[in-house]
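User: Structure please.
Assistant: Input sequence and predicted structure:
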Amino acid sequence: MPQLNVQQLFEERRDKLQLTWIGGHNGASRAMGDDALNRPGVGLVGHMNLVHPILIQAIGESDLVYLSTQSPEARTESLKRLCTGETVSIFICDGADAPRYLIDACDEYNTPLFLSQKKTRVFVNLLRPYLQRELSEVTTKHGVFLDVLGFGIMITGNSQIGKSELALELISRGAGLVADDAVELFQIGPETIQGRCPTILRDFLEVRGIGVLNIKAIFGETAVRPRKTLRLIVHLERPTEEYFRGLDRLQTKSSTTTILGVEIPTVTLAVVAGRNLAVLVEAAVRHYILQTRGYDSTKDFLDRHEAAMREQIDSSAPIPAAARSLLGASALNGPADITPLFDESGIFRAYESEG
């Protein structure tokens, strides 16, 4: 189960958030688990709130002014609420100085207290995605995770099907390696899955016949990525007769793979001698990009084909029964005395008069 303690948070975010640890050092072992993301009524990180519990409280200059104007008795009660309950740690932002009474209260209740030079709003926006990433449920999938044309692509398939070789070809064409063999996937949003590489495997790609390659050392710093959002899965498969028999060449709806409750678009590519899989993967990514922008080339092709058929129908004699079922007989009328001609792929080419 993912866990994050205060000591780890400080060490990993110290430079990013410009942190200084000034109080409550005995609370370094305080930790948050993955349940922190789903606890009803409990916030993960946010501005100071003395009513609703928040695990990480961010205090700004206005909050310090509010505390300073309270009477000693009211302030003592406020500090008790702030430092106890669900609070894991407190961060004073805006580059403000910590008042003595707040440091003493944090030492008394063993609540870690930090200073940050970041603005409160910026601090919260920077820390929230980090906490979601570290505390999210993690699942590991077998495959190769790459950055192709700026999109996170995971290549899957059976062992020895050529995933690593394909990844190496894509890297030589400008792609970036995220992870090979074991891909750690975690959810950072309702419909967003991100992937990373286990520390021990980072920068390495294993290619049969060559060995383990350090991609960063061979291709340079720009050939690797620390993490990437998963946008598309490319599954490699050795085709069989059953595969080709069930293949829909004009499918208008993409298949998906469910990971951590999120459906990821999936493309299946047949591994056949002579096919340039690297080009096919890049084409699949470009096709996906167009789909995200609202353009579907398959639908465009079918619409154009149907429009051409309707145009020919409108300018020709009566419509055959076969064409009625293909285009929708409710909109068509007339005797069936012509025959539609199709090619081997089942695509309409012309009409032939039965007379």
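The chain is about 35% helix and 30% strand.
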